[in-house]
Design goal:
75% of the residues lie in helices and 2% in strands. It has 174 residues and is an all-alpha fold. InterPro entries: DUF4728, MARVEL_domain_protein_3. Keywords: Membrane, Transmembrane, Transmembrane helix. It holds the Pfam family DUF4728.
Length: 174
């Protein structure tokens, strides 16, 4: 993969990494608030592993909300580590975000495809919604992968800097 030199053609990968981490924290906090403020009847959790009545029991006990909240708290923690890593120039602190980012991208792709296919299979009344979810989800995935590539490029730059020494000049190209 070729390293990115700029984020959005105007900012450095360092600034882009800081913005990405900040966005991760903000979106996680907004999602936590939404999960707990939204009425239970408008939010549906399905496991597709257990029976439907078991899913209802889980939802009544708020286990899906608690599980999602814990996951989002870890996302906030890892984004905080990314901010510290970029500011202190420590590549090993960036590694959890890089790994989590690619795992979340795969999960996002699966989620978008599953949700849109489920709505397509429900019938014609949900075809427009399924198309919007598919197109919007894929656009969101592309933006997410671009921001992941920005952070990964910054990670590689910091890792290379640590390997050759901070104050040594870059080796000459032959």
């Amino acid at each position: 993969m070729k390293r990115l030199q700029k984020c959005c053609c105007c900012a450095s990968t360092r600034t882009g990494s800081l913005i990405t981490a900040s966005l991760g924290i903000i979106l996680s906090i907004v999602t936590i608030i939404t999960i707990w403020v939204a009425d239970k009847h408008y939010v549906s959790y399905r496991t597709f592993i257990f029976a439907e009545d078991f899913d209802k029991k889980l939802s009544e006990m708020d286990l899906p909300r608690i599980f999602l909240t814990v996951n989002l708290c870890f996302t906030i923690l890892i984004c905080g580590l990314l901010i510290i890593a970029v500011l202190k120039r420590r590549s090993w602190l960036m590694l959890p975000w890089v790994v989590l980012g690619i795992v979340l991208a795969v999960g996002l792709l699966i989620s978008v495809l599953h949700t849109s296919i489920t709505y397509y299979l429900d019938g014609q009344q949900h075809a427009l919604l399924a198309t919007l979810i598919l197109i919007g989800g894929l656009i969101y995935l592309c933006i997410y992968l671009y921001l992941w590539a920005v952070v990964f490029s910054q990670y590689l730059d910091i890792r290379d800097e640590e390997e050759r020494g901070r104050y040594r000049k870059a080796p000459y190209k032959r």
